[in-house]
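Handoff note, outgoing to incoming analyst
You'll be picking up this chain. Sequence as last confirmed:
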Amino acid sequence: MGFEDFQSAKEQVKARTDLVRLVSESVPLKRAGRGYTGLCPFHDEKTPSFHVFPDSQHFKCFGCGEGGDCFSFVMKKENLEFREALTLLAKEAGVELPRTSARDRAQSRERDDFHRVLSEVQVWYAERLAGPEGAAARDYVVSRGLDTARAEFSLGYAPGSSFDGPQHLVNFLRQRRLPIETGIALGLVGKSARGYFDRLRNRLVFPIHDERGRVVGFGGRILPGFESEREPKYWNSPESPVFNKRQVLFGLHQARQKKAKRLLVMEGYTDVIAVQMAGLHGAVATLGTSLTRDHAGLLRRFSPEGVTLVFDGDAAGRRAAERAFHELAGETLSARICLLPDGLDPADLVGRSGRAAFESVLDEAEDALDVWFTLMDAKLQLRSVDGRAAATRECVEILGSVTDRARREFLLQRFSARLMIPPDVLIAGMRPPRRQPEIEESRVAAAPGKAAGSAVQKARAELCAALLAEPELLEELIECSLEIAELFPASEHEHSFVADTFERFLEEGALPTADELLSRWLTRASGDSEATQVVLAWSDLSRCLEDPRSTVERGVGFLERERMRTRVDALRESYRKALSTGNDSEARQLELEMAESMRRLHRPG
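Most recent structure output, in case you need it:
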C-alpha cells in the first residue's frame, strides 16, 4: 500500500478503537478524573500507576514508563510487530487494509488457503489418534508420558503402511474438496507414477504453530515397529510460503498462552511437551536446525526476562552451545546456557526425577558468554600461544558481525578482560561491521541560533513547534514523557520557560491557545535576543508541520532513546573502571544494569 493509504487506514483503525475498552479486556480500570486508572499489565505493582486517557486515546504507566496508543498497547501486550498489531486491530475494527498490488493479494489468498488446509488436516490427524485406528499410537503416547498433552498440543496420528498407499489423507482432501496441489506444496502429499500418496504414514504427529497459534506445518515421529532405513525417525514439513523453520520455535504458541516470561530453548518435540507439562511453561525448541538469528529475534521479543539454552552434555551438545552463542552474541538479550548431564535429555530428566530435579539443573546454568569461554578453553587451551591466537580470531569474527555499537563495545570489553589482551588488539583485527540502513530519528527543519545545533536540540525544537501548532498536545506530551525536565533542561534559558509552561498547565489545568502560548514564551524571552530568535523560529516551523501529533510521538521517542544511550555510556565507563580496579562484584552488577538498559533501548516501539 502507498504511504497515504497506509496512514489513512492507520488513522481509521485508531479512530474506531476504544482504548479504554481494549485495555479493560486485560486490566480492570476505574474512573479517575478525566481518565481511568488500574494496575499496570506490564510490571508487578500493588498501587495503580497505569493511566488511560480517553480524550487523547493514550495510556501511560508512571511506574515502569510504558506508554503509547492502541497499537503500542497491543504490540507490548501480545508481543507483536507493528504490522501484526495493525492487522489485528483492523480486523476487530472492521477496517480493510489496502494491499499494494494484485500480486500481493494473490499471495495473501494463497497463504490463507494454506492455513485453512493445514488447520483442517490438523483436526483430521487428531481424530485419527482418537479413533480405533489410533490405538497403537495412543499406547505410544502413554508410554512416553504425553497423554495429558494430547489436547493442548493437538497431537495426532497419520495412518498408512506402504510407500504408495493407502491414501488416507489424499482421500480426506478430496472428500473436503481441498486442493491436492496445496497438499503437495505443503509437503503432505507426494506424487509418483502410480498417483498421489500420503507422505506421513504410521507417525505420531506434532502440529507446528507460529507465535500467533496458526498451524504452519507438522512434525512426525515414526511409531515403534515401523522403523526402516527408508523412513527417517523424525520428519518435518518442508518449507513453504507459511513455514520457515529458521523463524519458528515449537511450543512458543503454548508458552505465550501460559504467559511464560523466560524461555527455555531445547532440541526436541517431546522434550518441550514433557517440560511444559511438568509446569515449566517456557520450554520451546528449534525445528531440526541450529539456533539462528531469526530465532534470536523471536527470543528477544517473547522472552523479556532472558533465555536459557538447554543442551545435552555430550560433544554434540557442546558444539551446539558454541554455535548458539555465535548467533546470540549480537542480541541485547540476557542468555544463559545449561549443559545437561551426559546421556540425559530434558524429557528423560523431568520424567525420571521430576520438575524439582530439572529446576536444580537449570539453576546451575551460567552466563552464555562464560560458558562459551569455558568450552573454547577446553577446545583450544587458552593458556597456550596458539590457543590464545585462535580464540582471538574467533572473538574478532564475532565482533565484526555485531552491528549494534553499544553491544559491540560491551563484548569488546568482556573479550579483552577474558583474553587479557588490550581492546586495541581486537579492534585492529576487525573488519568494519556490515551496516544496516539507519532509520531517520527526527525530521527537523533547521532553526536559527541554538535550535540549529545537535539532533537533540532539533528534536526539542520540533516539540516546541508542535505545541505552538496544537497546544492541546501538552496533555499528550505529559502522558507519554518520563521527565519533562529531561526533555527541556533548565540549563538552557529557552527550555527553562518551556518547562515552566508544563508546570503552570499542571497547576491550572487550563490549556492556552496558540497565540497565548507564543505570547507567553516571547515575554519570557524578552531581553535575550538569541532566545527571542529561537522562539520565533519555533513559530515559523509550527506552520510547516504536517502532523504535529506524530511529531510529538517521534520527538519524545528519540529524546528518550538519547537519554537511555547516555545512561548506557555512563554505565559502560563505570564498568571499565570496575574491571580495571579488579572490583568483580561491582563489574557484574554494572554488567547486568548495562544489559537491561540496552534491552530497553532496543525494545520494539
